[in-house]
Protein 1
Amino acid sequence: MIGNRITHRMADGVRVPGTWRHAFICNGGSYFLTDLFIYADGLVDCWELVTLDEFEKKLRSGWVATSLPDGGHASAHHLASWTFGEPRTWLTPELLLAEVRDTVDKLNRRPDSTDRCLAAVDVFMGDRSEENRAAARAAYLAIPETVRHYALGDMDHKDRPLQVLVAGPGGQAPGPPGEPVTQGEYDRAVAYFEERSQWRAAAPARVPADGPTGSFAPAVKVYHSYPQRALEDPGKQALRNDYPAPITLGDVTYPSVAHAYWARSVAAPEARTAVAAAETAAKARTLAAAAPRREGWEQARTAVMARLLRAKYEQHPDLAAILLATGDATVLYDDADSGFWGDNGGRGRNWTGRLLELVRSELQARHSRVD
């Protein structure tokens, strides 16, 4: 079970809360005991920062190991090494992934599988139909088996009242086979939840006046790439500044945001023209790097980039739809050439990602007619 350990990482100047648990990594046939860090923006650090989808692939492949072979070699870096002898494990890829997803929800103060189960129980307690009981039972079974005991936060009763309630009189409680639930057991479980509801109602509740402080959607990572041509279905690659989506500013049309950015960075008009006409965004950058920079460029570049991104997504509604589809996710933009524009594994300032979030918010406001 993932505990309540507290950690964080810095991303584009923002503190991203996280937690961690122990895990085994299988690399080159050997097993390494390490720490698995889970962050609120949906990224997981298992020797590298990955998205939840990428983490699932590592689980399915066995690189993050949930089963351990008898006789396998293991080590904890700089501490010890050993050989497994009749190892017993409790996790499966499905269980660990479910725990990690629950942890991301908790870090964002969103309902996790346990909260969703207890909400279904509340519905059943208000209307004790068999349909509502079945929904509560399904929600209980959706809680990772490794954490069901802790669902009620009651170490005296553990999850037994939940098991009894979702089974009903004469029903079979989830878990190992046993005797059917008696009427007396069921009545006590109902009384337990009625009393629990009373003290929960008396507890103070605080609702943020302006909505959540963090994003609901998992983080979106825009990997560094060198797109050469427009694609029919570009996906997140369309969010790259060097993606070939021409933008027009005044009487000049640039092949991409990157072309426009680098052209506007140089001082000499002839250099500007050459950069704008470069065959690729990479060549535009190379030409601009060899030319003198405009005075005050470092102080103005963020505002210039914001304008260019607005132009891109205003002039290309299909690409704006891709940006809007990221919801309220944190956008992590990799840029191997710049620690200012790229997140680069948490080491950069991620200004491109931040500006993409700003432009996305402006597009959402326009669609919702919020001003």
Protein 2
Amino acid sequence: MVVAAQPRPRPRSAGWALTALRLPGLRHLGPNWYATVMGTAIVANAGAALPLDIPGLRTACTAVWALSAALLAVVLGARAAHWTHHRDQARAHFLDPAVAPFYGCLSMALLAVGIGTLTVGQDVIGEPAAVASAAALFGAGTLTGLAAAVTVPYLMVVRHKVEPGTASPVWLLPVVAPMVSASFGPLLVPHLPAGQWREAMLLASYAMFGLSLLASLLILPLIFARLVHHGPLPLALTPTLFLVLGPLGQSTTAVSKLADVAPGAIQAPYAEGLAAFAVIYGIPVMGFALMWLALAGAMVVRAAREGMPFALTWWAFTFPVGTCVTGAQGLAHHTGLVALEWLAAGLYAFLVAAWAVTGVRTLRGLLDGALLAAPVKRVSNGEGAHRCRCAPTSCFN
């Protein structure tokens, strides 16, 4: 009897095994995951801005900033692997009007961690390293934010099929990113050479403030019209109503921070005018933000009573509220009004609670695989709006 020699099977490398384990899970990892970084970083940034003397708060903010930096590294690595191994899916995200706006979150994640690096991170890594790191994050975040602010609206006009009644607060994400840069720029002004460099940073930040504000004013009426004519958002999307607070709180924060550094960057008449503008603009906008907070909160309570499921959209309860904390703190600094300090403290308490609950639910959904499940296509509900038939934790729209 002749026994044919059988070729020995090649041992599978550790790299192959790792790829087999991770790639299927990453296929549906979208850019909305950057919201976890934004929502974590704002807890540290807003806490550091509070005018209240709370024992241990600075240490806690530093720890949360370190967590946000680690999250940024993890999400950036996962997204890079997604683009490498699932490029078809990544390109499809650009062509999906429900997913493409989340590319603005990349910019805001970089900027939020950069702000924390400069405000609390220097306690750990020292001022020179903090300034250098913050400058790098500011540059990367600003460039990606400006690119998203132009690219996403362009795609919405020429490539996306946007149907009537589908306007969403998510549309604000790419155009709010430059407003975060406008709030970050003033923090770098004191570290620049006096004269042209400081003035250029100041005016560039104001330009990004105007870019983001005017673009947001174009989108906000569409969002309210969608609510009035087509009714409440789907349950899983209801938390995104809090995204409207983003341009409101962030713009108030921006004008306050810009007014703080204006005397050392621009001539006296303009510096005084910018200080007045911070209050004249900020108080009415903060009033509108509180009105919208009450409206969005009522809609969330209604949705919760109807069984609102957990989804990554819950991260909308964090970053936008955090911008209102920093906005109220800036107004308190410029007006000396104690009531605004208490407003900032109250909003911060809500922010911390929302971050803790959302973070725990996200970790649980990640461990059981629900947050990385493949979404199911949307279907029309017959009234012009769309209802998502996907697992709620993987819902984009």
Protein 3
Amino acid sequence: MKANLAAVARQFISPSMRYELRNVTDKLRLMLGRACFWRWEVARFRLEQQGRYEFLYIGRKQQREVASLLLGGKDVSVVEVAPGATRDQVVLVSELPTAGALSVPHFVSAVVPLGRPLDEIIARYDSELRRSIRKNRAAYQMRQALTDAEIAMADRDLLRPYATARQGDKAAQFSTEGVFRLAKGVGRLDLITLNDEVVACHLGCEVIRGGKRYWSTLRFGYCEAVFSDPKKLREVNSMTTFMTLEWALANGFDYHDIGLCVARPDDGLLRWKRRRGGDVDTLNNHACLFVRLPRTGAAEFLWETPLFAMEGSKVTLHLGLPDTASDDEIASRYQEMVFGGLHKIYLYSAKRAGEAFVQTLRSRYAGFPSTPILEHVACR
């Protein structure tokens, strides 16, 4: 019955409309999850023992780990505390919106605009990455996995071991049935070979949003000989991403979605994808937390913890410019936080943002198709 309904939907509902319907369903599911107030808690914690700011968290207990990840990163220590900070030093983090709070997404996607020559796309790569691609491209090939044996091998030897190596027991694995369903139906599984030896795979599917075609990466997988060698992993990972982009471009896609990242402007994976032309996008990402900045020291807080936030469907970036930091220090701090796809950049400071840094920021966006609006936010 379910399969018949899906077939009817595919016949009579356009792909773009199906995408919007999935979005509505996902948002409703998130709202219903938040409505389970009996699972909520009120907790206070600091990030690092000597953290200046106290966080007041209101929401589901299992989402508190997401809050600490967004605000402190993967390796930060979380210390629960009794109430003690002044109200001016408290950062309110909630699953429901509060007055003046930023809507901070859990994840963002890195999306490369296509529809232009390959040379133009890779012009945004740094020179070292371009050299590596030119040097190694001839040794690599990509082919679709078509047989059950190849799909099972990729699931068993590439996708699962790599996810476990990265995330441990908490790795969110695709089920074997899900891998087969994608590989043989709604998506595609490709094997990457180096000198005719399978070293990696790519699992992806097509998404159509607003009439535009996105080739969306769902998972990369690598053999143990690759992911246990950081240098080799960097090379194979770069080549896998590049060949997937080549395939998407050759097959008429409008965008290549490189995949999800934690929505932290200083996240290492997001920086890696930014260097490969990925613009920040909320493609299929609806979950968020609401963060109300401290009444005093907002510039210092955002200096330590820059944040993405949503204004409707548009992504904004919030940066702190404390009085204690020089223009050179600020330029260095935010050197790797230059993202395509931004609607606005908010600069928080007690006085007008330094003109030297504003000019530096504008020059860094000079080669982008559109430049984000820069807005100063006066704070204490």
